[in-house]
Every structure is written in C-alpha cells, then in structure tokens.
Amino acid sequence: MTPKFDPARQRAERTGRRAESLAVFLLRIKGYRILARRYRGPGGEIDIVAQRGKTLVFVEVKARASRAAAPGSLSVRQRDRIINAAQAFIAGRADLAQLGQRFDLVIAVPGRLPHHLKNAWTQTT
Q: Any long-range contacts for 110-116 (C-beta under 8 Å, 24+ apart)?
C-alpha cells in the first residue's frame, strides 16, 4: 500500500511545476500566447497549449537531470495520449480548428535554460 505522504512524489511534482513555469516563461519570450496549462482531456493531459501566429502548439515539458535523458522519456503511449487530449481541446474550441498544429517538447535541466524542440513528433493518425 502506498503511503499518503510520499516525499519523493512531492519533490517530483514540485520539480515538474517549476519546469512548466520555466517553459511558459521561455515560450512567452519567444512570442507564444499561452492558451492553457495542464489541460486534461479524455485519455490524456497536455502540459501547455500555446499559439504563435497561425500555429497551435501542444507542449510536453520534461524535467530531467540531463538534456540527453529527456527525449527518450516520452513514450509512444504518452504521445498518443497527448494527441487524444489535443483533439479534445480542438473539439472544444472551434475558433482554433483552422490553425496548423504542432507537438513540441521543452526539456528543463537544472542550472540551464529550458531547451525547446519544435515539432518533436508528429501525429500519425
């Protein structure tokens, strides 16, 4: 049975929230408009939904000890969940349906600025 108070889980949650805040800061500096944070849709969650020009961007944020460890931490199953949540987000926002879509990854590493990988994966369905 899992204890109700898990210090490791709480640290991971705080680290993740900090990484997301840094990612939002970076995206805003780059000219993105943040539409949602921690959007929960059927079957998945999107860390950040942003818009820049005519592109709607769904961003996954990964906080890792090294930059090299982050890209491999996003499984096919996780990407599919994000894609499903993105489809639900768009279904609820008809005004955004005409925009192009992209899936990005922001990697947060301690002591460094976040790294933004545009078009980190594509929707295959």
A: 110/65, 112/67, 113/22, 113/26, 114/19, 114/22, 114/23, 114/26, 114/61, 115/67, 116/23, 116/26, 116/27, 116/30
Per-residue pLDDT at 2 exceeds 60: no
Q: Where are the domains of the chain?
A: 7-121
**DSSP strand pairing (55-63 vs 44-52):** antiparallel
Report the DSSP pairing between strands 100-108 and 55-63: parallel
pLDDT tens digits, 91-124? 989 899 999 999 999 999 988 889 999 998 887 6
**Paired residues of 33 in beta bridges:** 51
Q: Which residue type, as a one-letter code, is found at position 125?
A: T
Instruction: Name 53's Cβ contacts closer than 8 Å, sequence gap at least 6.
Output: none
* Residue listed under structure tokens 């942003």: 50
Place of tokens 């805040």: 21
Tell the CATH topology of 7-121.
Trna Endonuclease; Chain: A, domain 1 (3.40.1350)
